[in-house]
Design goal:
The protein is built from six helices and 16 strands. With 302 residues, the chain is α+β, with helices and mostly antiparallel strands. Helix 1 packs antiparallel against helix 2.
Length: 302
Amino acid sequence: PQPRFALADGWAATAQAARELGYPLVLKPVDLCAGMYVRQVADPTELRAAFDALAAFPVNARRQPRVPVVLLEELLTGPEVSVETVTVDGVTTVVGITDKSLGGVSGFVETGHMFPAVLDPTTRERVGEVAVAALEAVGLDRAVGHTELRLTPTGPRVVEVNPRPAGNQITELVRRVTGVDLPMVYAQLALGEHPDLSPADTGVRSAAIAFVLPPRPGVVARIDGTGAWSTDPRVVDWSVKPDGHRAGDASSNNDYLGHVMVVDTAGAGARTVADRLAGQARVGYLDESVPAGADARVGVGA
């Protein structure tokens, strides 16, 4: 199960594909990363604006010429999760499921994650089944996988299948809870080894990361409100951008100004703590046209 979609090259083909699919839609590049230029569009005017913005960005993240094809998808609603898997000789093990919160200017910027996701047993089983079926459908037979799905009112539907470990430090959340080091597993698979995927009792029941997004573009003068990050024993990692950093507009994962990672040894409370601590961050700008201390958490939980 996946969204209805179309690939299109050029404005005329894109507009025609949008008419056939019907609005609302999501427009995506086929060769960028971190949610860059992913936009929700409600009508032809918004589609044209999103198309033109993407067309004006001619290279990918590695400064290579971009493929001009765009991907249009039916807009899916519902919470987003990812399934972290390891496939060895065609047999897939579900290591676990990660939840996500989305926000930012586009509504698709990842503002945080928690592992494991809090799901009822039936939903958890179905999500795993759909992810495994997606890996089989694309023929992935030996790799670490990171499959993203939306939990729609009609059930889980696949958004992305990635033949690689998850980014955004999700693999570190997994390691802290289960002891399974997915980047190491990835290396072992490349060497032809058979990794041990047995979970260990690490004493951690949940781990979460929350990101600080810029309230607006500008040069950062300071980021305040992080005092508790270095004193709270549940915090295992954190960082913020230095003074003088030029902030973007919170339109992709590349715009993060910092993060805080939290573990909970008692239960599924890591997400709540991480979001609360990240919400204390306040961004001051050299340009004082916007008051210092504007809320740095843009669209959390949107």
